[in-house]
Structure formats: structure tokens, C-alpha cells
Amino acid sequence: NYIVTHNTGKHEYPLKHIAKNLQLGLYALAMKNKYPNKDVHASLYYLRSGKIKGHLFSDGDLDRVVQTVLDVTDKINGITNFKTTANKRICKYCTHAKSGICKTGAAVLRT
């Protein structure tokens, strides 16, 4: 199975870093979950240069993608120092305010 995503930016990843590109890794992980018995090759197609840079994602590569997502999620969930928004009306939609993690948002919801 092949995945190709088009990139319009000026920055091109070096080929040796393609395996660590989280965007491609997430696409590859989704494809592997849908088609577990198939190999997954994901590529970046750079529209400006016409270059295609890709990688055949191994199970180890996909395990690293999962671990990266878990690490980032843990980091985000550990943030308790939220900057106060100027628009207090949006606090009623915020799960952090509803859960009480964000003390400012929780106070807004109590009023």
C-alpha cells in the first residue's frame, strides 16, 4: 500500500529523516491498522521541486510513531498552567474547564 502526500512548503526533509516524519508516520499507522497484512510505503511529494521522498514503514517505525503520540499526549495532558483567554465565553466548550484542570475556566463555569 502506498501513501503520497503533497507538500507545498519550501522546506524539504532530508531522505534520512523521512522515517521520523510524524505526519507520514500517522498516515502509515492508519493504513497499517486498516490493512494489517500489507506493507506500507509513505512518501512526501514536493510540488515545488517535483521530488518524491518516501519510506517503507516497518513495525518498529510504527511502534515509534505510537510512542511519540503517547509521549506528546502525556505532555499535553500534564499541562496545568493555562493562559487565560480574553474570550471567557469559550470556556463553556473547554473540557479542561469542565474537568477543573483549568482553574480559571472552572471559575468561569461556576459563575
Walk me through the structure.
By secondary structure, the chain is of the alpha+beta class. Helices cover 41% and strands 17% of the residues. It has helices at 22-34, 59-77, 95-99, 103-110; strands spanning 2-7, 40-46, 52-57. The chain has a 3-stranded mixed β-sheet. Strand 2 (40-46) and strand 3 (52-57) form a beta hairpin. The radius of gyration is 20 Å and the shape is elongated. The N and C termini lie far apart (53 Å). The mean pLDDT is 91.
* Shape descriptor: elongated
Mean pLDDT: 91
Fraction of residues in helix: 40-55%
- What kind of sheet is the major sheet? 3 strands, mixed
Helix/strand-derived category reads alpha+beta
Q: Roughly how many Å apart are the termini?
A: 53 Å
Q: Order of strands across the biggest sheet?
A: 1-2-3
Low-confidence spans: pLDDT under 50, at least 5 residues?
A: none
Strand content: 15-25%
Extended strand count: 3
* Tally of alpha and pi helices: 4
- The helix/strand order is EHEEHHH
CA gyration radius, whole angstroms: 20 Å
Give descriptors for this structure.
4 helices, 3 strands, 111 residues, 17% strand, alpha+beta
